[in-house]
Write a structure and sequence with these properties.
Elements: E1 12-16, H1 23-28, E2 41-43, E3 46-48, E4 56-61, H2 65-81, E5 87-92, H3 95-100, E6 107-111, H4 119-128, E7 134-139, E8 155-158, H5 163-182, E9 184-189, E10 192-197, E11 201-207, E12 210-215, E13 220-224, H6 227-233, E14 238-242, E15 245-248, E16 252-256, E17 259-262, E18 267-269, H7 272-288
């Protein structure tokens, strides 16, 4: 199949197939699972149901061309071995090229040791601007894994690459992508309703009789309900840090002095009795994701 579009600025296409996808749908779903019907969606007042999305977008950011090619080969072998043909793979020679691109990626393989900005600084800048791609660090230094907590990494690979570990990491990546797309809530909006992806919600706050959903793009959605009802509808990534707050652990980088520290720089309160439990839950959550 021919490529359906031009590569993003600074990107060199390596392999893969781009599926046909409307821009409106892509803006709403930056992360996709494969061959899975998505839930009911309301787009511009129109109901779209059982949409099957057949594309995943990968990026490799490594200043060593041979390592980038080796990663691309491993990825291609894995995808072919799992009969996944619809994906797109782009390569960037350094962190600056990745940051300057307009690309939106589901998964980024990021070399840690590069010229500034190195991989860790590149990851921090991505998170600060609201990029929620799954990050897999590639490094020769195993101790770099401890820095992965700050940028919500999905995993890490040690150089030289090991095929078995690469496949285990990719299994986890695909499970995470599938979970991200499949989880949502439907909330009342005026005379209609709206579907909100759980992966888009940073935290939920109750004020009076209203719940306010704070999204990663800065938007805030409000509706009438009780926090207890919402708590029953969300999944295990959400933690009740305060009687008035639920926080998405995907967006938490730690807690300190009665405050939950968010990846994008904000803070919300955590009750004194729940601070220790939050720390333990966050560590367990990161461990389950393979960090």
């Amino acid at each position: 199949m021919e490529d359906q579009g031009q590569p993003d600025g600074g990107a060199v296409p390596l392999a893969g197939v781009c599926g046909l996808l409307s821009r409106t749908f892509h803006d709403i779903f930056p992360t996709f699972c494969y061959n899975e019907p998505c839930p009911l969606l309301y787009l511009s007042g129109n109901l779209v149901k059982n949409v099957v999305v057949n594309m995943m977008k990968f990026a490799i950011c490594d200043d060593e061309p041979l390592m980038a090619q080796e990663l691309a080969g491993y990825l291609t072998d894995y995808m072919e071995g799992n009969s996944i043909t619809a994906y797109d793979l782009s390569s960037f020679p350094d962190g600056r090229a990745l940051l300057e691109s307009d690309g939106r990626f589901d998964v980024i393989f990021l070399d840690v040791q590069m010229e500034q900005p190195d991989g860790m600084e590149t990851a921090k800048r991505l998170r600060r601007r609201g990029d929620h791609s799954l990050l897999v660090f590639v490094t020769v230094l195993q101790e770099c894994v401890f820095d992965a907590f700050d940028v919500e990494a999905c995993g890490y690979l040690l150089k030289p690459l090991d095929r078995v570990r690469f496949h285990r990491t990719m299994d986890r990546v695909l499970r995470t992508l599938k979970q991200r797309v499949g989880a949502d809530i439907v909330i009342p909006r005026g005379t209609g309703c709206e579907v909100v992806l759980l992966s888009d919600i940073v935290y939920c706050e109750v004020l009076g009789r209203k719940i306010y959903l704070h999204r990663h793009d800065g938007a805030v959605i409000d509706y009438y309900d009780k926090l207890e009802n919402l708590e029953r509808r969300v999944d295990g990534r959400f933690f009740k840090c305060h009687r008035s707050y639920l926080v998405n652990l995907d967006y938490v980088r730690g807690c300190q002095a009665g405050q939950v520290l968010l990846l994008q720089g904000g803070r919300i309160p955590v009750s004194r009795l729940r601070e220790r439990e939050l720390t333990q839950t966050l560590l367990r959550y990161m461990k389950e994701r393979g960090i």
